[in-house]
Amino acid sequence: MLVDGAAVDTPAATTREGRTVKTLRGLLRLLHFVGLAMFLGGILGHIALEQLPGAEADAATIVVLLSAQVHSTRVLMMPGLFLLIVTGVWLTVRYHGGFLRVRWLTVHQVLAVLILLNTALILGPIGTHMLEVALALRPDAFDLSALHELARQELTFGPINLILTIAAIGVAVFRPAFAQRARPIHK
Ligand code: HEM
Fold it and tell me: Buried-most residue among 50, 100, 129, 184 (CB within 10 A)?
């Protein structure tokens, strides 16, 4: 039996079928955490690269750093988000009785949608645009004003992503009641 998303040990949980259910749930949670590590690692990597001393020393350095950021968005952050969504939807449907049943989970999912929109529609395109601008820089006398304008936008939406991600983790870990009484879900 599940109460408000928390596993409660019943005799069934000690049977073979119960153990299989527990193992699958554990595996899905593990993959959910792997997705989280990829996504959060990508965000923190972006911040670390931005702080690198001499990051704006010359056009070639700027291009290398921005290429690294765009690459990590494509190979770490977007696949991580994809893994979070697939495992999250699976966990929701299989172990939490579907969508819109438990308030903390709905808040968690709304935060995840905002993160997805911010990453895919705002931050990803800004990063790609910055790389295009950097590739057009002249090696001798380069003007960074267009790049700084884009960096300003990134500086607004980047921290928003970090805050939303920490909020989504906080809601999933502490599972506040949000004025909702615990409701048993029978499976
Ligand atoms: C950026 C997006 C996301 C982050 C950072 C995130 C983070 C987390 C974390 C850290 C937990 C573990 C809490 C714990 O076991 O103590 C968790 C659990 C959970 N998440 Fe997410 N998640 C995200 C997206 C999603 C999405 C899109 C869904 C579903 C549509 C989802 C559904 C769930 C469910 C159902 C659990 C509970 C798992 C269980 O049954 O134990 N998550 N999430």
Answer: 129
What is the number of domains present in the chain? 1
Please list every protein residue whose CB sits less than 6 Å from any atom of ligand 1: 5, 29, 32, 36, 39, 84-85, 88-89, 91-92, 95-96, 105, 108-109, 112, 115, 165, 168-169, 172-173
Question: Measured between alpha carbons, how far is 51 from 48 in angstroms, rounded to an integer?
Answer: 5
Residue nearest to atom 29 of ligand 1 (CA): 88
Tokens of 35: 């997705």
Q: Contact, 98 vs 92, CB < 8 A? A: yes
pLDDT in tens, 76-112: 999 999 999 999 999 999 999 999 999 999 999 999 9
Residue 27 Cα to ligand 1 midpoint, Å, equals 13
Q: How far is the CA of 51 from the centre of ligand 1 (A)?
A: 30
pTM of this prediction? Answer: 0.88
Q: What is the domain range of residue 153? A: 2-185
